[in-house]
Amino acid sequence: MKILSLHQWKQQQAKKTSSSRNKQVDQDVLRIIEQVQIQGDEALKQYTLQFDQVNLNSFEVTSDEWEKAIKKVNSTLLDALEIAAQNIQRYQSEMIEFDWSITPETGVKLGQQVTPLDRVGIYIPGGKASYPSTVLMDAIPAKVAGVKEIIITSPPNKNGEIDPVVLAAAKIAGVTKVYKVGGAQAIAALTYGTETIPSVDKIVGPGNIYVTRAKKWVYGDVAIDMIAGPSEICIFADSNAPVSYVAADLLSQAEHDEEATSICITNDRSYAKLLQEEVNRQIPLLERKEIIDASISQNGKIIICENNKEAIDTINQLAPEHLQLMTTDPEQISTKIKHAGAIFIGNYSSEPLGDYLAGPSHTLPTNGTAKFSSPLGVYDFIKKTSLIQYSKNKLEEAADTIITLAEAEGLTAHANAIRIRKENNHAQSIFKQKNQ
Amino acid sequence: MKILSLHQWKQQQAKKTSSSRNKQVDQDVLRIIEQVQIQGDEALKQYTLQFDQVNLNSFEVTSDEWEKAIKKVNSTLLDALEIAAQNIQRYQSEMIEFDWSITPETGVKLGQQVTPLDRVGIYIPGGKASYPSTVLMDAIPAKVAGVKEIIITSPPNKNGEIDPVVLAAAKIAGVTKVYKVGGAQAIAALTYGTETIPSVDKIVGPGNIYVTRAKKWVYGDVAIDMIAGPSEICIFADSNAPVSYVAADLLSQAEHDEEATSICITNDRSYAKLLQEEVNRQIPLLERKEIIDASISQNGKIIICENNKEAIDTINQLAPEHLQLMTTDPEQISTKIKHAGAIFIGNYSSEPLGDYLAGPSHTLPTNGTAKFSSPLGVYDFIKKTSLIQYSKNKLEEAADTIITLAEAEGLTAHANAIRIRKENNHAQSIFKQKNQ
Predict the structure, then answer these.
(1) CB neighbours of A60 closer than 8 A, spacing ≥ 6?
(2) What residue in B sits closest to A324 (Cα-Cα)?
(3) Main-chain dihedrals φ then ψ at residue B209, nearest 5 degrees
(4) Best residue in B312, B414, B433 to probe A by mutation, most A CBs within 10 Å?
(5) How open is the CA angle A370-A371-A377, to the nearest 5 degrees?
(6) Using CA atoms in the order B366, A116, B214, A369, what is the torsion angle rounded to 10 degrees?
(7) The CATH number of A23-224 is which of 3.40.30.10, 3.30.70.2740, 3.40.50.150, 3.40.50.1980?
(8) A258 pLDDT higher than 60
(9) Starting from the edge strand earliest in sequence, which strands make up the sheet with A177-179, in order?
(10) Active-site choice (B232, B321, B351, B362)
(11) What is the ipTM of this complex?
């Protein structure tokens, strides 16, 4: 893990570059999307054989399969999922939004109607990995928002099965249906629909590069949560932060994959040195040490800032997905953070607490996109409709202003729609008058 | 304007198709994006010469140019812009969101911090058309959200100028800077930055197919408002709705362009016939009759529904951008609408009222995307950060649950970050113990 001065780090910062092209993957992904649109289930069947090495005759997890799977999950794990689900539900319920209206003047009523999406799809990665926590973190906000149909797609293993813990989490979260389909073909099916998989209004959830690129391609035909990149953590620590905690947290992030980024910012050079040693001490003791070592060597950094202001500016420039504040005044510092996915305040708010249990979704903006994106929440599963209601009198009062603006833009039929109401209720003659 | 039964209309509805490819345009757009990334201002200069036929040495509208332009705008129009701006500001201010937190148990604090985006870009179409109303409708929500830098890009005319009314609206709305750049090159500049144009966090605003495709390509590197399609109106009218009003409103939508769609839904076949006649009577009297006639012939429809339920179901299936309810009980019906960009309630809430004056943004989800998108609003210019704070005691209580979940996913370094806090505050030995 390298130690860098702020100046050194700044010199390393590259210009913002484009993530908008990935030619080979895009070519494959576009062919898959096209085939699913043309051939429907038949294409899904072929791609599942090709990519997941299993020949499926039906994609839907039956209620029988579902029940049997859940019985395989031990009760400690089921209880843990239930506790997490309750916390997520409690937190997300705070975000429920309601219709509103104002009557700024008699005869004028304006507002917004809030409605849930009808049907959403959640992509859950499969194969070797299993992410029941993502099922809870992504499905419960949709449920709280009032979404009626929540469906999951996930690639099956070689026996044509979905991980029982994923199915248990899906049941707890109130998921409606689970389909055994993965990859870009799942994203295409969720967007355009096939004989068995219905098209959805929004697709959320993480996935590999094929899933991510497919989401980018179908965006616009369907809503998506985000274009997610590798996961990151940034810990702002002063010399009071237990060095073993900071090291363990950095390494927990690093175990996700080689591309993950772990950064510590500190104002104490001797602390940086201690942390570097502790990181080196802990790595070989961890199970996923190969991944962790690769990630830390490539992307691990300890950045020395001279003072809190420099540190806060650096954090806001990074806009990290996860930010842990392990200083003597973490609450005070948190109010100065403009850009971060989630802030973990104090020495005992370790990132895995948020990944699994506290309540806020662990689906967070990565790669600096916290500058313009929010954590997944109830607001991702609702949309709003403007309401406009003017009385006859109020429209007549407003008419000249509207006509002035419409005519300034050359949109004379817009002006006419107002004039016809202002000048003559029945408007039999207005156009004739104007054109005589 | 065709009259169709609901059954006939349903048969015409095509399967959801892909808008994700547009090969020739995409090739051009990608080349433009790449050149702007490599060459910066020099590329902007060349494309402005090529597409706008003007050779510019600097892109920024100077404060002198800005002031002179505004003096050219007549006071009636300036007053109208001011009135519209006040209404927009009043409405958008209702949507301001605040930080919140909960303390569900002693030692547990959870919440969200709400922060504005730092810098946003608004694309305003130029050339022959001028859309000062879009400046107000897109910039004021950003201003109300607290965005510090709001910049506009718009293609210059052949004299290298931006329409003075657009500049006046920009001044009223609190826009920071205006740049004379249009097309895909403007979108690239706003995303990646050039020597003179700073990169922004979000791009909003309408544009032609090049602008729209460029927005799709840069999405992910920057936030965008939506992939906008042609504009649509749906009017639900019963026989009490003045036929001349309904006709004028349908035609006001049709004047936007040939691709615009105007639909009336009614439960009265003789009313449909009257409306059809009135539409035919009004078209030749209107200034933009060629566009209107083309739009109405291609996309104009009167759909006959048997009852309110059928009508409401049809509207929810359409998810129209603009919905006018001109029935005897419009408020009651509005509560049953699930999917629409904006609902205009009653005979005097004509769409141009919303386009120019009432307050809600006229930037609305088109082409059925109201099923998953909202009108532009303050919420487009803020983002949220989750806050998680657990005490030592509460983390220790939660530790086993977190460890259970992390280990179920095979993320043992995550489990360790929690275990190290639970088992030993200084954790000098925990890994050794585990591995002995």
Answers:
(1) A177, A178, A179, A180, A196
(2) B388
(3) -60, -35
(4) B414
(5) 40
(6) 160
(7) 3.40.50.1980
(8) yes
(9) A177-179, A149-153, A119-123, A202-204, A223-224
(10) B321
(11) 0.94
> Residues for chain A: how many in total?
436
The least confident of B43-47, B116-120, B208-212 is: B208-212
pLDDT for position A436: 35
**What are the structure tokens assigned to A43, written together?**
């294409």
Query: From the centroid of its chain, how far is CA B63?
Result: 29
pLDDT tens for each residue of A78-122: 999 999 999 999 999 999 999 999 999 999 999 999 999 999 999
> Environment class of residue B230 by beta-carbon count within 10 Å: exposed (0-12), middle (13-18) or buried (19+)?
middle
B20–A220 CB contact, under 8 Å: yes
Residues 6+ apart with CB under 8 A from A150: A119, A120, A122, A139, A142, A143, A173, A174, A175, A176
Residue with tokens 């100065």: A336
Catalytic status, residue A322:
yes
Are B94 and A76 in contact (CB < 8 Å)? no
- Residue B130 binned pLDDT confidence (cut-offs 50, 70, 90): confident
Integer Rg of chain A from CA? 27
Q: Using CA atoms, how far apart are residues A7 and B336, in angstroms rounded to an integer?
A: 59
Give residues with Cβ within 8 angstroms of A86, minimum separation 6. none
Q: B23-224 and B229-371 share one CATH topology?
A: yes
**CA torsion angle A289 A291 A292 A295 (round to 10):** 150
Integer Cα distance of A310 and A313 in angstroms: 5
- B39 class by beta-carbon count within 10 Å (0-12 exposed, 13-18 middle, 19+ buried): middle
Q: Which two tokens stand for residue A117?
A: 């999406």
HSE (CB half, 13 Å, CA atoms) of A116?
Answer: 17
Amino acid B427: pLDDT: 46
- C-alpha distances (whole Å) from A342 to each of A332, B82, B383 are 16, 40, 11
Task: Give the Cα separation of A371 and B383 in Å (integer).
Answer: 8
Q: Average pLDDT, stretch A348-361?
A: 97
A7 is in an annotated binding site: no
In chain B, which residues have their Cβ closer than 8 Å to the Cβ of A131?
Answer: 409
In the numeric block, which tokens belong to residue A277?
């040693």
Is the model's pLDDT at A429 over the cut of 50? no
Between CA B36 and CA B42 the distance in angstroms is: 8
Amino acid (1-letter code) at residue B200: V
In this complex, the residue of B223, B345, B415 whose CB is nearest that of residue A387 is B345
Record: fold of A229-372? Rossmann fold (3.40.50)
pLDDT at residue B16 tops 80: no
- Burial letters for A280-294: b for 16+ Cβ neighbours within 10 Å, e otherwise? eebbeebbbbebbbe
User: Which residues of chain A are within 8 Å of residue B88 when distances are taken between CB atoms?
Assistant: none
B40 has pLDDT over 50: yes
Does residue B421 have a pLDDT over 90? yes
To the nearest 10°, the Cα dihedral for B215, B221, B223, B225? 10
Q: Which residues of B touch A398 (CB under 8 A)?
A: 353, 357
DSSP B60: B
Query: What's residue B26's pLDDT?
Result: 87
What separation, in Å, do the N-terminal and C-terminal C-alpha atoms of chain A show? 83
pLDDT band at B431 (very low <50, low <70, confident <90, very high): very low
Of A221, A249, A391, the CB nearest to B20: A221
In chain B, domain spans: 23-224, 229-371, 392-435
CA diameter of chain A: 92
CATH for B229-371 is 3.40.50.1980
Q: Distance (Å, rounded) from C-alpha B98 to C-alpha B104?
A: 19
